[in-house]
Amino acid sequence: MATRAKKHATGKVPAGDLTQRVGVEQIDARGVNVPELLEKLIDAAGAEFTTYYYYTILRMYLAGNEDYKEICEDARLEDRAHFELITPRIYELGGSIPYDIREFADRAGCPDAYLPGTEDGKQAPSADGGGPTAAAILEVLLEAERCAIRTWSEVCDLTFGKDPRTYDMAARILNEEVEHEAWFIELLSKERDGVVRPSGHFRRGTPGEAPYSKNAGFYNP
Ligand SMILES: [Fe+2]
Ligand SMILES: [Fe+2]
Predict the structure, then answer these.
(1) What pLDDT shows up at residue 217?
(2) Å from CA of 10 to ligand 1 middle
(3) Regions of the chain short of the pLDDT cut 70
(4) What CATH number is associated with residue 182?
(5) Whole domain around residue 170: which residue ranges?
(6) How many whole angstroms from 154 Cα to the centroid of ligand 2?
């Protein structure tokens, strides 16, 4: 009996060629502009990385508000998880993060989440010991989450139905960013305006659980 040709045994990339990737060729063939996607992923990874850095400072200055600190910490560690999740994908697609961290920070797709009262990070907050208010810090956190939602929604749009792997990663990250926005709306609304706007949040299982981006179990007793 004649051996039947296997439809997917060969393709555009010659056998043994290591200079091309079928994983790139296939999404390109489905309409993804891979160089453009790569630039957006690098910008987005930069934003996750720098936000992780700035949230470290913001969390410190939520001193005395243990509940806010804990929630800020979840958002902070989940941003690190987002960086970890998306960075290998940049390399799979043939890209690289910048070799100089300064370049990486500068090209981040979202603004620096500076501690309020530091003149965009140029000075320490006021010397009277009061520090920025919790409301001012929560405003910075909220707007950072909103930038992240816009970013990952765009990546989902660029990859939907064409690049299932990047789409899956972006959608996982987006799921957490939407939760983060809801958390900070709840906290800021009560703190600044005295208005109750529940987020549906109770708590992560452990700090930075990242149920979507780390594929961890949901808090679902
Ligand atoms: Fe994030
Ligand atoms: Fe976030």
Answers:
(1) 86
(2) 39
(3) 1
(4) 1.20.1260.10
(5) 29-117+126-193
(6) 15
Amino acid 131: pLDDT? 86
DSSP string, 150-179: HHHHHHHHHHTTT-HHHHHHHHHHHHHHHH
Look at residue 19 and tell me if it is in a domain: no
> What's the predicted TM-score (pTM) here?
0.95
Domain count for the chain, please give it: 1
Is residue 216 situated within a structural domain? no
Identify whether 9 is part of a domain: no
- CA–CA dist 12, 150 (Å, integer): 35
Task: Tell me the CA–centroid distance for residue 75 and ligand 2, in Å.
Answer: 5
CA of 219 to the centre of ligand 1 (A): 19
The CA 131 to ligand 1 mean position distance, Å, reads 26
CA 45 – ligand 2 centroid, Å: 12
Q: Is residue 202 part of a domain?
A: no
**Per-residue confidence (pLDDT) for residue 13, from 0 to 100:** 97
Q: Are 190 and 196 in contact (CB under 8 A)?
A: yes
